[in-house]
Design a protein that fits this description.
The structure holds 2 protein chains of 2 kinds. By secondary structure, chain A is of the alpha+beta class. Helix content of chain A is about 20%, strand content about 45%. In chain B, the strands form 2 sheets. A 4-stranded parallel sheet of chain B has the order 2-1-3-4, with helices on one face. Classes of the chains: A alpha+beta, B alpha/beta.
Chain lengths: ~475, ~300
């Protein structure tokens, strides 16, 4: 047994090295073949490089004589590297000290080679686009504006006017970025002039659904109407038109989900629907297990010719309110609101740089039904319809300068006897406001406005002059139509 | 009858989504629309989002553009932030995965040529600057060919079935273009060294190509309209270093250049800047030919 083992070990000792040698031999052959291949490759590469060089020289000559364009190696699709780099990538790595490759692009174009932009290495290169919007206002008015009213409307908390004197209104900070290939995110925090921060918008949106679908979720401004979805700094006037103040507390934004579908048609045609928590005016109390508001809207639009284009929209909003407060009153019930919007824009030849005009009109109609309670009094039934509308024009008559005119009005049903004298009673008054605006833009990021309003929204007429600056800095996305 | 209905249904489906539909191109500017047609021929349907009468920096994100981008297979744009004021909004609202950033269906011409004037500092106090460099590459025809080559490759990548056509059309275009550039360069020889004033600082590639010398732009900073005080400064400068003529893009406000031209007693030339900018600039070839003719005409005055 022992001997057998030794013999086997000996045998193994004899055989194994031989096997190893055989392996070595085959390895050597492989290495030789590899080296030969490398040599071949090297020769081929050198030949290719020489060819490239002579081509470059020929082109250089041609450029000096005739000046033809040099061919830049077509970069692979999707890369954004400067062509100098793609050129370097295209050339094979030379194993020996490289022959000097003239910077083709620079030589051919007679320009100093631009420094290749080094890829950013710091850990802030994925930072989102951060933009800030600053506002400053000065309000002069015949009567105090801080407790201004709209006749017949139990207003939301933001529907009022700026106070007299200096104020900053809303300052906003927004952060926007792609989250990954499928989602983008947007956060907008606004600071009221009492220093309290508010999350204005905080949503994610799909980028890659295809089929014309987009989903949005989080807190966002509803797509109803025309100006509702725009941030205040993107409005054509310093304040929201009267119906937006009365029906939507300036604009409707809430926590929820939105789906939009863009039809594959030549004419722009978009459908959208939303469901919201229902905590924001005209909703309140997050009814229906936190799904108190839903909306639907359709947008359509097209060009008329090179110079003019239009957009039209029809929107519907249903909201439920539980304990919506105003002064010492409460409202419980539902509001169904419909909005029709039309926008027309004109610019000579479609070039808005020097002169351009935009006309907007929107009509609001709503039905408010439920129960109304004043100072812990009895619950009074309400069934009231209200309507409003505005028409506005804005004309840029020369670069940087524009003026605007706006007329807005608002009316409500006569209230039943039990509600006479409450905030829902307009005392037969039809609210209206006429506004004129003069605007000077230092650039697309800086703006000064002077706005005059003859305000008869409440029972007591007021005359208001508002001076305002608005600036945006940091990367700021392009604006909607 | 049933068969007929079935046939009709199939036919209707076929019409709704033809199997061999053309590659749908959304070109941001007329020069890239024209180049797309040169390379794509009848294999592509080109929609050009702007005209030669429009300032490509400032386009309204109109509903019609969103609808067109919705069904595009590829956008062919200048890039380098030229369209930053409107295209991102179009892309966001169209939400077409094919043409989102980094997708093969987003083609930016300026990524295929070296750009001049890459700013050392990004500060909006410097005016309307573009972080990637000056984007107006189409003022030099030598920049067109590298873009054409990249575009043919990109068309072939997205639409491999017609790759051979794109390559053949590119080869043909290459030949005609190289000859034309040589012809234009020779034709424009008298312009070498000519001092000029420009309205917007948008002509640096043409200036380098033809050896024109820019005495001053009529904008104090890119994109900032001139005040009368600034124009007076330009006039003072022109007294010391006279220019032969002023140039502006046909779409630009003619008042500053007309004002300076009148007071400095030099001709004001409106160049097409892109295809369709003037009546003569019907296609890529006549764009450069008519531009040079206009400038040679102004030189003689």
């Amino acid at each position: 047994m022992h001997h057998k083992l030794i013999a086997a070990a000996l045998c193994a000792g004899l055989v194994l090295p031989a096997a190893a040698r055989a392996d070595e031999a085959s390895d050597l052959a492989a290495m030789r073949a590899e080296m030969k291949q490398m040599q071949k490759d090297y020769i081929a590469r050198m030949a290719a490089m020489e060819k490239r060089l002579s081509k470059t020289e020929a082109e250089l000559k041609a450029a000096k004589q005739g000046g033809t364009a040099k061919p830049v190696a077509a970069a692979t699709p999707g890369t954004t590297k400067p062509p100098q780099q793609s050129l370097a990538q295209a050339a094979p790595p030379p194993p020996s000290p490289p022959p000097p490759i003239p910077d083709q692009s620079a030589a051919m174009m007679d320009l100093p080679p631009s420094p290749p932009s080094a890829p950013p290495t710091s850990n802030n290169s994925f930072n989102p686009g951060i933009a800030a919007v600053l506002n400053g206002m000065y309000m002069a008015a015949a009567h105090d504006t801080s407790n201004s009213r709209i006749a017949g409307i139990a207003m939301g908390d933001e529907a009022g006017l700026p106070p007299r004197g200096f104020s900053i209104g809303e300052s906003e900070i927004s952060l926007a970025a792609n989250i990954d290939p499928f989602l983008s995110g947007f956060l907008d925090i606004s600071f009221q002039d009492d220093n309290s921060p508010t999350v204005e918008e905080a949503y994610i949106q799909t980028k890659d659904l295809g089929g014309g679908f987009t989903l949005k979720g989080g807190r966002f401004l509803s797509g109803i109407g025309y100006i509702n979805e725009r941030h205040a700094h993107d409005w054509l006037f310093s304040d929201a038109p009267l119906p937006y103040r009365a029906f939507l507390n300036n604009q409707y934004g809430d926590d929820g989900l939105q789906v939009r579908w863009l039809a594959p048609t030549d004419q722009f045609l978009e459908f959208g629907a939303e469901i919201f928590r229902g905590d924001a005016y005209p909703a309140a109390g997050a009814r229906n297990t936190g799904m108190g508001t839903y909306t639907a809207f359709v947008h359509t639009g097209n060009d008329i010719n090179d110079s003019s284009s239009w957009l039209a929209a029809a929107s519907y909003l249903h909201s439920d309110a539980m304990g919506r407060e105003y002064n010492d009153s409460l409202f419980n019930g539902r509001t169904d609101l419909g909005i029709l919007s039309a926008v027309y824009k004109w610019a000579p030849g479609g070039n808005p740089t020097v002169r351009n005009l935009s006309l907007t009109t929107e009509i609001f109609y709503d039905q408010q039904s439920g129960r109304y309670e004043v100072s812990d009094g009895p619950l009074l039934p309400v069934n009231q319809s209200r309507w409003g509308g505005y028409v506005q024009g804005d004309y840029q008559f020369m670069p940087q300068w524009s003026f605007g005119l706006r007329y807005a009005m608002l009316g409500t049903d006569k209230v039943p006897l039990a509600l006479t004298g409450t905030d829902l009673d307009d005392f037969g008054h039809t609210g209206n406001a006429e506004t004129a605006l003069l605007e000077f833009d230092t650039s697309e990021f800086g703006r000064f406005r002077a706005q005059y309003t003859h305000d008869e929204a409440g029972l007591k007429p007021n005359d208001e002059i508002l001076f305002q600056f608005t600036v945006i800095y940091g990367p700021h996305g392009a604006h909607r139509y | 009858m049933k068969k007929f209905i079935l046939c009709a249904a199939v036919a209707a489906l076929g019409m709704a989504s033809p199997a061999y539909a053309n590659l749908s191109v959304f070109a941001c500017e007329p020069e890239w629309g024209a180049l797309s047609s040169e390379i794509g021929g009848d294999k592509v349907s080109v929609y050009t989002a702007t005209t030669g009468q429009q300032d490509p920096h400032q386009i309204q994100a109109r509903p019609s553009l969103i609808a067109k981008a919705r069904s595009a297979d590829i956008t062919v744009c200048d890039g380098a932030e030229l369209e930053i004021g409107w295209l991102p909004m179009i892309l966001q609202q169209a939400n077409n995965p094919k043409i989102q950033p980094q997708a093969p269906g987003q083609f930016d011409a300026t990524t295929f040529v070296p750009l001049l004037e890459q700013p050392l500092a990004y500060d909006r106090a410097l005016g309307d600057i573009h972080a990637a460099g000056n984007p107006h590459i189409q003022t030099d025809p030598r920049m067109i060919l590298p873009v054409a080559k990249a575009l043919a490759a990109r068309f072939a990548q997205i639409d491999p079935a017609n790759a051979a056509t794109y390559q053949a059309r590119l080869a043909d275009f290459d030949k005609r273009w190289t000859a034309a550039v040589a012809k234009w360069t020779a034709m424009a020889a008298p312009l070498k060294g000519t001092p000029i004033v420009v309205q917007h600082h948008a002509w640096i590639y043409m200036e380098r190509w033809l050896g024109l010398v820019e005495v001053a732009p009529l904008e104090p900073k890119p994109g900032v309209p001139p005040s009368s005080g600034y124009l007076a400064q330009v006039l003072a400068k022109l007294q010391a270093t006279p220019a032969k003529f002023s140039i502006r893009a046909a779409y630009e406000d003619d008042r500053p250049s007309t004002f300076v031209a009148e007071h400095a007693n030099i001709p004001a030339v409106a160049l097409p800047f892109t295809v369709g900018g003037t009546e003569q600039a019907k296609d890529l070839f006549s764009l450069y030919e008519s531009s040079i003719t206009l400038m040679l005409g102004a030189l003689k005055k």
